[in-house]
Here is the input.
Amino acid sequence: MSRYVAFLRGVSPMNAKMPELKRAFEAVGFTNVKTVLSSGNVVFDARKATEVALERKAEAAMQQALDRTFYTIIRPVSALIRMPMPGWRRSPNVW
Here is the structure.
């Protein structure tokens, strides 16, 4: 299993409830799902797959559960941690 982040464009508490978004991701087999309320992004575990395949799976899950979808970009946490970002500190309770 690998850890991923789904960056969702346009998600906010006004147009998607975080518990429903979490359940949508869990319904398609993603595990250890956490939503980040301030951004609407989702962190989750999944079997290793291409980012495009995971994006399609996440968008289909949102369409099924929420009756809408959000443009999705998925990246592995391992790649994000290696990115140089001065002044940025990762939150251990999210990753």
The first strand starts at residue 2 and ends at 8.
